[in-house]
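PROTEIN DATA CARD
Card holder: GNAT family N-acetyltransferase
Chain length: 157
Origin: Sneathiella marina
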Amino acid sequence: MTQEITFTRLPTIDPGLIIAHMSDPRVAKHMPLLTGDWSEATVAEFIDKKEECWRRDGLGHWAILANGDYIGWGGLQKEGEEWDLGLVLQPGFFGLGPRITRKAIDFAIADIRIPFVTFLLPPSRKNRRALDRLGAKYIGEILYDGELFLKYRLETE
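Structure generated from the sequence above:
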């Protein structure tokens, strides 16, 4: 059965679902910036930061739903002058990553403000074939908040 993928705003999601998601060690394995335990206060601060992006830029991270159920968060967020595409899924839904990424890229293609998107991957992510198939080009290693990431860029125009 095909899962219907939809995007909604993060404040509509039960904080307990986000706590469980972000507390999973399989998620933390590929998130070097993820530190500390998640609580209702952590989730509230996280959502406030994501909603600030929406107020400032008119776009930000979404909650991602499969058949109406929360499976993760991600989307397009402005980092400086660039639009970064991030995706953090629950482990049982990692396989939907390419499909969700394609949906977010289609959104970026339709938005004239976004001539390209960037992707920051931790070096722990060994399988990067999906980015190659999309046509993303490797830019190089960068430090972000003191952590090493591999940066890719995909033209959307």
